Amino acid sequence: MADAATASALNDPAVQSRARILIDEILRRGPNDAVHLLVGESDVTIAAALTLLPAAKAAALLPRFEADHRTAILRAVSEEQRDRWLHNQHYPAGSVGRLMEPVVATFAPDTTVREAVDQLRTWVKEAFISYAYVIDGRRRLLGALVMRELLLAEPDQPVRELMVEHPFFLKATQPVSQVVPLVHVRHFPEYPVCDDEGVLIGLVRGYAFFHEQTLELTAQPGKMVGVGREERLQASPWRSLSFRHSWLQINLLSSLLAAAVVGYYEDAVTQAVAVAAFLPVMVGQSASTGGQALAVALRGLTLGELKLDRWPDLIGKEAVVGMANGALVGITSAVGIFAYSAYHGHGAAWWLAVAMLLAMIVSTMVSSVVGAVMPFIMKRLGFDPATAATILVGGVTRVVSIAAFLALTRWIVL
After folding, report:
1. Which tens digits make up the pLDDT trace of 129-184?
2. Which string of b and e fits 383-409 if b means at least 16 CB within 10 Å?
3. Number of CB atoms found within 10 A of residue 11's CB
4. pLDDT tens across 331-355, in order?
5. Which of 4, 329, 394, 409 could form a disulfide with 268 if both were Cys (CB 3.0 to 4.6 A apart)?
6. Using an 8 Å Cβ cutoff, are 139 and 195 in contact?
7. Helix, strand, or coil here: 147?
8. In what order do the strands lie in the sheet with 190-194?
9. Count of alpha carbons within 13 Å of 99, Cβ hemisphere only?
């Protein structure tokens, strides 16, 4: 427990003022960069800053400090605060348990309204309370109490007659990504959290889910191109390099594979110069089509609109959309390559147009399917579905589109 001197230092106006200044910087940085910012501050200042953060973010930063530093920070805060930070660490990363706060307002079923209101008057001076909860002798959740009902009830009425029975609750081990679609349609200020036996063990504020989802959505575009969630504008050049470089090497490998495909069909390129001119058209359209399907699939997974067992339906839909898009843009591309070939006096202009049309249909169909299934594949393998998705989808579609165009050109034209 923090001694009187440490508690006094924690509440010192200068310490609190410095902590508030640091909060703005912490919220703009990833965890590692935030810790790097804080290590130059005193332990009391760090402790004060962490107490101003959401419990989940503070608990995520704490393990990143050196052991001695971490011990000093924990010693500077209250026992209740310390237990809250450490307790949440027992749950898996990304789970509801990491976002929990302690429950303050709990009542037995036979508690009268008068007794409950008297107790709430004391509790609200120490904690922010949205709902009260009714529990049995084993702390199993029986119901939730809304303040309006307490206000309008008779003083001698037991709270069991006012409670909302079998309230919606979450489990501490549930992944936040699976919970967001559930709370998306239940706009409550807070949600009770229970264990597998229905025992009330904490609560999560609605803003905590909003904060986590905002971080996830803002990080998703970066993750799709190989930029880690932790990288921020304030990250050092070397940290940014470590986050990004490995995926660029993977992207380079796919580009080299595409180059090998071009080399294999070198005769098609040399004998029909128009093919070389229109290869970027094929690659660009395929990449765009795959990116569209990828974005829709990721959005569906994030919002819980699409389950893993529904992927065959998604493949069928994206295959049809890809073929239709391929046919429409293929006609335009075919006109373009026909005009280009005819202008340069190529004798097989019509056949090049046919090859372009068919290749565009094949490549956009494949790229749509690949874009749709890539998040499912990544999730099955245990990775974040958005991780470098654009790089992976782009690599596959680049090779497929080039191979389709050159193979059809060799088969139809040469």
Report:
1. 899 999 999 999 999 999 999 989 999 999 999 999 999 999 998 988 778 777 77
2. ebbbbbbbbbbbbbbbbbbbbbbbbbb
3. 11
4. 999 999 999 888 887 778 888 899 9
5. 409
6. no
7. helix
8. 170-171, 190-194, 200-205
9. 29
